[in-house]
Amino acid sequence: MTLEAIRYRAGSLQILNQLLLPHQSVFENIKTVQDGWEAIRSMKVRGAPAIAIVGCLSLAVELQGGPQREGEELVAFVRESLEHLVTARPTAVNLGKAAAELTEYTEQQSQEPECTTERLQESVIGWIEAMLERDVSDNRKIGNFGAQHILSGVSKEQVTILTHCNTGSLATAGYGTALGVVRSLHAMGRLAHVFCTETRPYNQGSRLTAYELVFEKIPSTLIADSMASIAMREKGISAVVVGADRVVANGDTANKVGTYQLAIVAKHHGIPFYVAAPSTSCDLSLESGREIVIEERPAQELSDINGERIAAPGINVWNPAFDVTPHDLITGGIITELGVFLPSELQAALTGRLTAL
To answer: Cα–Cα distance between 265 and 263 in angstroms, integer?
Structure first.
C-alpha cells in the first residue's frame, strides 16, 4: 500500500498535515481557497505537484460548497482565487502554470454560446479533478523512464541511489518523481539501497522521505546533509536523483536548498546527477535560473526545532528555501513523463521537436 497525502471526493478535500509527520498522521479538512492557501504557505502540504493539486482542489471544493455565483461573477471568482493561491509559495512553478491554464480555460468556456453557470462550474471542477489522475500517471512514467535510463549506464545488477528532500507520494498525488524512480527500481528488483539526506532546516528527508521508505520497506539509510560527499566516495552511489520546483528553458533547476552542492559533489566523483520532474514543473518562459524568484522562509525554521531555540540568541539567519543548480551539473539528464533529456534538449523536447534519449 502506498501512502496518500491527498484525499478527495466531490465536495470534500482532506490533506495529511506533513508538519506532524512522522509522529502523527492527521488529515485536515480543506473547505475554502483560503484554507488551501494557508496549508500551502505553512507547508502542511508541500512538493511542487502537490501544491498545485491541493491549491486547485481547494477551489473546486469551495465552488461545490459555497454560494452560487453567476456568469462573470463566477469567472472573476475563479481568476481571483487562483491569483491568490499562487502567492502562497512563488518558486514552485506548477501552481502558477495550472492557474494560468485554468483561468484561460474558464474564460474560454464562459464564452461558449450554450454555456450556463451550472455547466461552467462543472467544467471547471472537472478540469481540476483531471489533474489528480494525470499526476499519478505522469509520475509512474517518470519512475519507469528514470529507472531504465540509470540501469542503461551501469554494468551492475543493482544500483544505489542518493536522493534529497521529499519527492514521493507525500509531494505529489501519488508515487512520486525522484522517489518514483526509486520505487520503480525497487519494484524491478534492481535497487540495492537508497540514501536520503535529512534536508535541513525543515528535515523533509528525515521526517518524510525516511517515513515513506520505511513504510514501503525499501532498503534505505538516512544521512546528514554534510555526509553526502563521503557517502558518494564510500558507499558506491550509482546516481543522484532529485526533484524540482522549477526547471527553466536552459535546464537550470530550482530545487530544495542543498541540491546545488550535491550536484557539484556528484560531478567531482563522476556520479550521474538526475533531475526528475513532470513537464508541469518546466518553465520555458524563463531563459536561465538567474530569473527564478527564490522564496525565503522565516528565520525560526533554522534557529528553532519544535519551538525550542537551538541557535545562539542574536545570530543573523539567512534561510532561502531553494537553490538553483546550473544545467551543466545535471549530467545524467532531466527525467520527465516524456522521457529523459539532456538539459540542452529540454526545450525542443517539451515543444515536440525531439524524442527521448
So the answer is: 5
Which pTM was predicted?
0.89
DSSP string of 53-115? HHHHHHHHHHHHHS----HHHHHHHHHHHHHHHHTS-SS-HHHHHHHHHHHHHHHHHHTSTT-
pLDDT in tens, the chain (357 residues): 567 899 999 999 999 999 999 999 999 999 999 999 999 999 999 988 899 999 999 999 999 987 788 888 999 999 999 999 999 998 878 999 999 999 999 999 998 888 888 899 999 999 999 998 899 899 999 999 999 999 999 999 999 999 999 999 998 988 999 999 999 999 999 999 999 999 999 999 999 999 999 999 999 999 999 999 999 999 999 999 999 999 999 999 999 999 999 999 999 999 999 999 999 999 999 999 999 999 999 999 999 988 899 999 999 999 999 999 999 999 999 999 999 999 999 999 998 865 555
- List residues with catalytic annotation: 245
Q: Which residue has cell 530545487?
A: 255
Question: For residue 279, what is its C-alpha cell?
Answer: 513537464
